[in-house]
Amino acid sequence: MQRYIVKRLFQGVLLLIIVSTVVFAVGRLTGNPVDLLLPEEASEEERQAMIETLGLDGPVLEQFVVFIKGAVQGDLGVSIRYRQPAVDVFFSRLPNTLMLMPAAMLLAILMAIPLGILSALRRGRLTDRISGTIAVLGIATPNFWLGILLIYLFSVQLGWLPSSRMGDWSHYVLPTITLGTFLVAGFMRLIRSSMLDILDSEFVKLARIKGLSEMKVVWKHCLRNALIPVLTLWGVFMGGLVTGTIVTETVFAWPGVGRLTYEAVIFRDYPLLQAVVIMDAVLILVINLVVDILYAYVDPRIRFT
Amino acid sequence: MNGDFALEVQDLHTHFFLRRGVVKAVDGVSFSVRRGEVLGLVGESGCGKSVTALSLLRLLPNEAARTVQGRVLLDGEDLLGKSDRQMRQIRGRKISMILQDPQTSLNPVFTIGNQLSEVIAKNGAGRGGSVMQQAVEVLRKVKLSAPEQRVQQYPHQLSGGMKQRVVGAIAMHRGPSVLIADEPTTALDVTIQLQYLNLLKDLQENTDMAILFITHDFGVVARMCDRVAVMYAGRIVETGPVREVFNNPSHPYTQALIASVPKMQRSAARLHTIEGQPPALSDLPEGCRFAARCPHAEARCQAAYPGAFTVGAEHAASCWRLEPA
């Protein structure tokens, strides 16, 4: 088990190096950042001064070494807009996102597991068809559109829920639904299909031969096995969740890292964007590491190999 | 009612109602097993053996399958009339089953001990020792090596033969009246097969547990069973004591099956095969189901299904040629 975690950590570090390299390379490929940073009417002296402060006058390789050296020490440059270290800006926003993301995951887990199991048990019946339709809509609806629809209905028309910014619990409802719908739908279909396989399996037959109650057959013998494919695809869903926060936080004016990413793009805050992309990668890696450990807990075949 | 019988199956019909028609997987099957007896149910793949077994347990694989007719008397009580709740009390306690493939019949995410405990806890605690200690004892009974470690292990850490011993332990721990063994050795190595068959025999000894042993292997029948029932296309075509049936196979299908068992003495000879395919269970002929493949087929075989004609003590077969003149 320890070896497994160490291996995962090592892979994570390797991945971060690759991400950093790509981010660095893309930054240089899209042209001279100075052109983006300075107003068009800037003088040549101002350009030179900027190039020097940003360290863009050396050879690319040297710049890369400087960049990596800084990155390892937690220095990903200074945000142009905020005039503070980009990492600090990221961390000041992170808690707000860390309140939204788990809420969406919780919504996904609380809804997808019972609904997925229910539609598998009632395969082909009305319950299954309704939940299947909802799932298809949930996967197909882009979340910016869903967010706007929800605001229109619940904030503008009905006036029940606030449309933006952070506040008491009521501020969480619409962003959580917007961010979580895609996860709910994806997990639900995944759990349904793996439940269908498992319900046909021999070990479920044996559980029934033992005379176990249907509750025990489903919630003990099936569920844990049904969660394995969900955990396998967790990484894919995490990518969707992080990009989902960009859209959702923008729609709901939520001061988290998703919105920060959007702002960094809009304001051409290159150092900040670099930092946010790298830190998002770290975030995904950390979540995936937790899931990998959970995975090993759920499936002993991984724990013991 | 004969009190001697642990299990009596009378005129059992289990059909699959599919969109393309009705598949009559079990179509009028009757047999009985005495206490302490091993009845072999023999037939080729798809003849309805496993569906018969699952019908007895009322665990048919999907909603399309229904037992539409018949009686299943376990210790004299008809299982087909029981509620689902009553059936759960009966399964695992009075009637149990060993499945074919040990690689898939244990849950991969729970320990052996955990899966055993599900039948131990219900057996009534307080029979001495904790549940895990009892689990160790149960594994010792099926002669599994190092049972103390096994209870902590997961199925993937055990070999196929070991797993099948665990499945056997789970099935037999509560001392059922009837044990169904559905090809329990088919998935095992040949060297392990014999050990497992001997283990089953040993465990049955001194109990009055009846075993319904499903197989397609006449060699296994000869080793394990007291009586045999030969099944073809959803019906039983011949029943009798094993020795009787071997010495005097009376249904042409039984004769062909026995002839197709490879013999050591004649190693060079070509294996005997049965020409043709069994009829589709969704489109069964009026007459004898074996007629199309039978070397002795006559006109009347096509016309009507033959009844069971007695050929010896407890020995009967459904073939027109056996009709008393």
What does this structure look like?
The complex is a heterodimer of chains A (305) and B (325). Chain A is mostly helical and 305 residues long. Chain A has a domain at 94-256: MetI-like (MetI-like fold). Chain A is 79% helix and 0% strand. Chain A has 14 helices and no strands. Chain A has helices at residues 2-29, 33-37, 44-54, 60-72, 86-121, 126-140, 143-157, 170-199, 202-209, 214-232, 234-251, 257-266, 270-298, 300-303. The longest helix of chain A has 36 residues, at 86-121. The mean pLDDT of chain A is 86. Chain B is α/β, with parallel strands linked by helices. Chain B has a domain at 5-35 and 43-89 and 227-322: P-loop containing nucleotide triphosphate hydrolases (Rossmann fold, 3-Layer(aba) Sandwich). The interface between A and B is medium-sized, with 24 and 31 residues.
Task: Write a brief caption for the model.
The complex is a heterodimer of chains A (305) and B (325). By secondary structure, chain A is mostly helical.
The second-level CATH architecture of the domain at 94-256 in chain A is: Orthogonal Bundle
- Assign the CATH topology of the domain at 5-35 and 43-89 and 227-322 in chain B: Rossmann fold
Main beta-sheet annotation of chain B: 8 strands, mixed
> What amount of the residues of chain B lies in strands?
15-25%
Strand content of chain A is under 5%
Q: Provide the helix percentage of chain A.
A: over 70%
